[in-house]
Amino acid sequence: MLFSNIFSQNTFIPDDNFEQYLIDMGFDSGPLDNFVLTSNINSLLEIFIMNSNISDLTGIEDFTALEHLQIDNNNITNLDISQLSKLRTLVANNNNISNLDISKNLLLENIFLDNNFLNDLDISKNLLLANISFINNNISSLDFTNHKDLSIVKLDDNNLNTLDLRNQKNININIFSVRNNPNLKCIFVDNITYSLNNWINIDATSFFVETEQQCKNALCKVTVDSFSDINTCDQYILPTLINGNFYTESGGNGLQLNTGDIITSSKIIYIYNIDPLDITCFKESTFNINICELPSTSNNFFPSFFTPNNDGINDLWLVKSNKKINKIYIFDRFGKVLSSPDPAIGWDGVFEGKKMISNTYWYQIIFNDNSLKTGHFSLLRK
After folding, report:
1. Residue 33 in domain
2. Signed CA dihedral, 309, 311, 316, 322: sign only
3. Is the pTM of this model over 0.70?
């Protein structure tokens, strides 16, 4: 005759409130003895233990089949879920958790840990994370670059100084909030424009950036001038700059241009400014100069000089164009407007009753189709 001795395996449950919950749910029988039959708990798929005044969740490691664990509103300080390899959802809001290892929970999709005392959380192994909320902790750094399924990201009231969301799937993040993180300056994202248009719950002191260099630029105090694109049908004269220098290529490269230089062909102009004390601190703006050509006909005449000597010959600077003119402005070499003559009458070389001296002057002609023509001419007095 063969005899078989069957020994029942028990799980140690030191917290009486935890054990009482198991008794109330029918997974254990009274009285309280700090043990529960392991076979009663190791096949459970989910448990919800809220508002139970539990401070010690020792024993949870034997709930090996758990997929969903919710333990809101308790007094839990230490939580060991390293044996819960099937866990997909962890909700542990309003506890006292300061350290948590989730490196073994590779199937974790949803994790909510609001109002705890977490200083750090390594999420590098949890690549299936979709919905996370770590509001009101003390987390300083998070990197989601390998998390392609993110949908909800709530990180308000932390101590973040580094946040990287460049997962190439930012358009799938429907809820995003990182308010009240005073040390968070740069939020790394896939596309700055998209984030600005869709993620408004950030601090005024935070910036969306795509690269480390953009982060440095956002933080540096250098300013740079900017101009609207220019559309003209003649040469263009580069205006005065206050902050920066003109270049033909990005990054302060190519040919450096100067105020007053004449541009005769369409091109992109770069304005680049750098902090002389920190070469990593710079800013740049660009504008397009689009130069077209007016039709070459006898109706177009833009005098290169005139001689206002009252001799009846070339006394007026008078233009002709096959395109209807809206406005004409005449400037001195410092950019001061001297006249806006009637296109049909022209300029007589007088400013505020004073005859202007022989010199070179500049003009800007605005046509009715909003195209421009700029250039210069000579005033000659004999």
Report:
1. no
2. negative
3. no
